[in-house]
Amino acid sequence: MECPECGSLIEEAPLAVCNECWGPLQVKQDYETVKDSLKKREIKNREQSLWRYLELLPIKESRFIVNLGDGWTPLTRCQRLERELGVKELYIKNDALNPTGSFKDRPASVGVSKALEFGFNVVGCASTGNLAAATAAHAAKAGVKSFVLIPGNIEPNKVVQSAAYGAKILQVEGTYDAANRLGILASEIFNWALLNINLRPFYVEGSKTLAYEICEQLDWNTPDRVIIPMGSGALLNSFYRGLADLEKIDFIDNSKDVKITGAQPKGCSPIVDAFHTNNRISPVKEPKTICKSLAIGEPASGKQAIKVIRETGGYADAPSDEEIIEAEKILASREGIFAEPAGAITLATLIRLIDNGVVEGDEKIVLLVTGSGFKSLEAAQKTVGKPVKIPANIDALREAVENG
Ligand SMILES: *Cc1c(COP(=O)(O)O)cnc(C)c1O
Ligand SMILES: [Zn+2]
């Protein structure tokens, strides 16, 4: 592992911060070895999960891999939206189709596998909901115990789902940030592998596979822009690291030409605000948004996210809850993709960027849809019509159809 801030190198360990300077530790990759063993031609025939890129993931022995069929989700061309919005090429990477319904299966699959490789027999996380379910499911498959720390106000479906997988759920009074702080203490007191705390450097590697898959699905070409939802900023950073990996092994040659664009809801947008004001990130004490998955007031990877957005010539924007709910409806009714608000935020952002001229019509754009609409049905319920109730006879049916 290495520290990008001070350059120190350390032995691999379940540790997230550098002992010398408190910088965020990263996994160090040996690209020469990867180049020798990973060939485009050969990847094509590998299994259809994120583990097809094993050489680029931080697991040494494949017997520790916990795989629910994570990743290798569809990249869908959206021709109806292209016409409606006036965009040349638009794709959705539909990560709502992962085993537990969100992209968090990627980091959870890698994180739980790494926990087993380190020899832990308890795993866990602090979560806004989706990571809890993903961690719990992979722990169940691995046969290890799991503890998840969640904030007080997340969607009931996410809590039920995590419980069904058998996790011990600790619902902390307060925000995600309160749950996360308690998680940091827990990782020091108990011998737990907390995926986004002491295993954070390994866990974030799982999300790099989103970049690998999109480039492979575009025949090893890159899009001009990718729009990514941000909570802590970890996903956005991992995506960029994934592109950089592909460049280092000569699979692509233009990682910096992909305009990485971040999205946060207006009611909790500390990263977007800092991007526009050039100030340091100031924490949001009480996030207020329908995007529960993105309600993180103190984004752990926010500073790095801003750097990536600047380096790639990307952008950052924060649509309102109303715009996000509208986008959720458009996505479902035009493309047949049912997303949770935190997933639909990328379409809401694209619509704003077209309206204000940041995005012009000739781009090839990918929107990440990171979570399923089933995760937060109450958000969708607000916008859809009610069923027409009819008695079970043909006259009533005819009348209902004729009334539209
Ligand atoms: C976790 C999550 C994100 C991104 O979160 P980061 O903390 O920035 O990695 C995006 N969408 C959904 C649905 C999520 O659950
Ligand atoms: Zn350091």
Any descriptors?
404 residues; alpha/beta; six-stranded mixed sheet; four-stranded parallel sheet; 16 helices; globular; binds pyridoxal-5'-phosphate; binds zinc ion
Overview of this protein structure:
This protein is of the alpha/beta class. The chain has helices spanning 31-37, 40-43, 79-85, 105-118, 130-142, 156-164, 176-189, 200-203, 208-217, 234-248, 270-277, 302-311, 321-335, 341-355, 377-381, 394-402, and strands at residues 75-77, 89-94, 122-126, 145-150, 168-171, 193-194, 225-229, 259-263, 316-317, 364-369. The strands form two sheets. It has a six-stranded mixed β-sheet, sandwiched between helices. Strands 5-4-3-6 form a four-stranded parallel β-sheet, sandwiched between helices. Helix 6 links the parallel strand 4 and strand 5. The protein starts with 30 loop residues before the first helix and ends with a helix. The model has no long low-confidence stretch (mean pLDDT 95). The site of pyridoxal-5'-phosphate has 16 residues, from helix 10 and helix 14.
What is the gist of this entry?
The protein has 404 residues and is of the alpha/beta class.
Topology pattern, helix = H, strand = E: HHEHEHEHEHEHEHHEHEHHEHHEHH
Q: Strand count, sense and closure of the main sheet?
A: 6 strands, mixed
The proportion of residues forming helix, as a percent range, comes to 25-40%
**Largest sheet: spatial strand order:** 1-2-10-7-8-9
Rg over C-alpha atoms, rounded to the nearest angstrom: 21 Å
Q: What gross morphology would you assign?
A: globular
The oligomerization state is single chain
Cα-to-Cα separation, first versus last residue: 63 Å
